Amino acid sequence: MDCAEDDCEKEAAVELHVPWDENRRVCTAHARVWAQKDGVVPDPLPGHEDEWP
Fold first, then answer.
1. Which among 18, 17, 28 has a CA at the least distance from the CA of 50?
2. CA angle, residues 12, 40, 49, in degrees to nearest 5
3. 26 phi and psi, to 5 degrees?
4. Does residue 20 register a pLDDT over 90?
5. What does 11-44 look like in DSSP terms, one character per residue?
6. Inter-CA distances, 39 with 17, 26, 47, Å
7. Rounded average pLDDT over 32-49
8. What is the distance between the alpha carbons of residues 44 and 48, in angstroms, rounded to a whole number?
9. SS3 call for 2
10. What percentage of the chain exceeds 90 in pLDDT?
11. How far, in whole angstroms, is CA 30 from its chain's centroid?
């Protein structure tokens, strides 16, 4: 599955639980940015646990 962010072709590795929007699956680079926002909870997808600290 590809990253949900526009113009990103990387593989999704993290599911973001976004309280004000739908959950989204993104690559680790975009997950790092999103995880800094209040209320967003990152959860590594199965098989990608080693990619997310």
1. 28
2. 40
3. -135, 170
4. yes
5. BP-EEEE-TTS--EEE-HHHHHHHTTSTT-EEEE
6. 8, 17, 24
7. 96
8. 6
9. strand
10. 92
11. 6
The one-letter amino acid code at 52 reads W
Determine the residue type at 20. Answer: W
Q: Are 4 and 13 in contact (CB under 8 A)?
A: no
CB-count burial class (<10 Å; 0-12, 13-18, 19+) for 39? exposed
The answer to whether 43 touches 35, Cβ cutoff 8 Å, is no
Whether the pTM exceeds 0.85: the reply is yes
Mean per-residue pLDDT, 10-33: 97
CB 13 within 8 Å of CB 31: yes
Spell out the domain ranges in the chain. 14-51
